[in-house]
Amino acid sequence: MTLLVPLLFAAYLVLYAFALALPPFPHAAAIEQNPLQQKPQYSLDEWLQREEDIALDNLLANVAPFGRNVQDAAPGSVIASPSKEHPNYYYQWVRDAAITTSTLVDLYADDPFDPLSSKLDIILNAYASLQDELQHTKNPSGTFADLSGLGEPKFEADGTPFIGSWGRPQRDGPALRAITLMAYLRAYNASNPSLWTSDEGPDWFKPLYDPRMPANSIIKADLEYVSHYWNASGFDLWEEVQGLHFFTAMVQLRALREGAALALAFDDSGAAAWYTQQAGLLEKFLPSFWDASKGHLIETLSSARSGLDCGLLLGSLHGSPAANNTVPGTPPYAPYSDEILVSLLALVYDQRNRFPINSAPPASPEGTSPLEGVGLGRYPEDVYDGYGTTPFGGNPWFLCTSSASEILYRVAAHLQETDELEITELGMPFWEALLADAPSFADLKPGSYGSKDGLFVDVLERLRSVGDGFLEVVKKHTDAEGSLSEQFDRVTGFERGARDLTWSYGAFLQAVRARGRV
Ligand SMILES: *[C@@H]1O[C@H](CO)[C@@H](O)[C@H](O)[C@H]1NC(C)=O
Ligand SMILES: *[C@@H]1O[C@H](CO)[C@@H](O)[C@H](O)[C@H]1NC(C)=O
Ligand SMILES: *[C@@H]1O[C@H](CO)[C@@H](O)[C@H](O)[C@H]1NC(C)=O
């Protein structure tokens, strides 16, 4: 190990120098062929099937109890990465943990009687108990008494507060945690049909939701936090910028809408009315994130940044239920909304030209769409290279690249389920890019299309193939063992940043799940 690291680093420097010396990167693909890393040649389908198991195994390795990388962590904690130095990600972030756990809830809900689910059930219960403790742990963001402590973004793996200076508070965590635990509550309730009306019912539900004991009900406490603090400024999901953020607002809105429905189910009608009222205000406020002059959504209001951001994709994905909507009404800025689609297009254009590896020739000759899969990073101005900050240091991230494919698959699934494609002037740039060179491109104009139209059929086909293109990029940059770190190098394409990033695995699994519905 000690010998290998300097060797790899030297190899990296040579490759890097070689890459810099090249003319405008036409040979970036050739640089990928590193003899140190011979990978078997799998088709995308074969690889996805294999990688799905690896990703779940590596994700669970970072979750206590049972995880091999978290032997000393409190049961229920989800660490961001096993990396303890360069960089140190060995903490539990409320946001990352809730997002990861929601993937586990989905797996549990698929089949609560599967052997995996009995293990997941233990993990989910431990997660819930630990969240209760974290909510009540006094920390640098505040305390439970006025709920301010719920805005604390991260804790030590053993559940004690992290006291170093940090970008705090962050107001997305409680919303995401409520969404995850509400999904768990519904899944558990659905698989135990007599529980709701039985004598044990209240005992099981109380720690999650109890109108009379809000101080001891995790979901209720989070919903109170979201409903009282959603319009207050906080740090963004990348923990860098203070303000009001699209990602945060989207998950807060979803939490409030689902929370209102849950409150009604528990006869907590006063709370339901309050959550509904705040959700209505938040929904009216959300269009502030649309910038008509730029032609895309922006992640943070009044920010010096362009606003193009992978957080827009993540906000749409986590702010919109993937299936079986639990609250009536269409969520704003769902993956299939015009605003998200043109924002995705703008982000892809930016990142294609920004990163040398994205200029490599297309893998397949038919891959000529302007939307063709590329490595996506967080945002254009990013300077974090996975270890520190350097000018122009940003790289593509696995979780952003996977999220682009999830958006496209979810659009396809939505079209299949509704059998209706509405093309408007606003969305035209996206559809033009998607259908470039497709047989029906000439027919493209605003209007309504159904599954009998050639255009609809072409759109579905392209959504799936372009979505696959982004997963091909993930496949290309994954190492031979199937491990996913945080980033992959913009020049050499090799993995960099925190190893085995839990969120990289979760985002990949969610993308593959969405692909399965198409
Ligand atoms: C729990 O399930 C019962 C039916 O088994 C249903 O009537 C009730 O609304 C469910 N509760 C929630 C919160 O989903
Ligand atoms: C939310 O905050 C924004 C920006 O500070 C402000 O313009 C808006 O009026 C606030 N909305 C509500 C409902 O409080
Ligand atoms: C919605 O839920 C029903 C019943 O739980 C299930 O049969 C169906 O496949 C789900 N639909 C989607 C799109 O997941």
From TrEMBL:
Keywords: Carbohydrate metabolism, Glycosidase, Hydrolase, Polysaccharide degradation, Signal. Residues 54-512 form the GH15-like domain. It is an enzyme of class 3 (hydrolase). The keyword Amino-acid biosynthesis does not apply. One of its GO terms (molecular function) is glucan 1,4-alpha-glucosidase activity. Pfam families: Glyco_hydro_15. SUPFAM superfamilies: Six-hairpin glycosidases (SSF48208). One of its GO terms (cellular component) is fungal-type vacuole. Its EC number is 3.2.1.3. Residues 1-21 form the signal peptide. GO terms for biological process: polysaccharide catabolic process. InterPro entries: 6-hairpin_glycosidase_sf (IPR008928), 6hp_glycosidase-like_sf (IPR012341), GH15-like (IPR011613), Glucoamylase (IPR000165), Glucoamylase_active_site (IPR046966). The keyword Signal applies. It catalyses: Hydrolysis of terminal (1->4)-linked alpha-D-glucose residues successively from non-reducing ends of the chains with release of beta-D-glucose. Belongs to the glycosyl hydrolase 15 family. PANTHER family: GLUCOAMYLASE, INTRACELLULAR SPORULATION-SPECIFIC, TREHALASE. This is glucan 1,4-alpha-glucosidase. It comes from Mytilinidion resinicola.
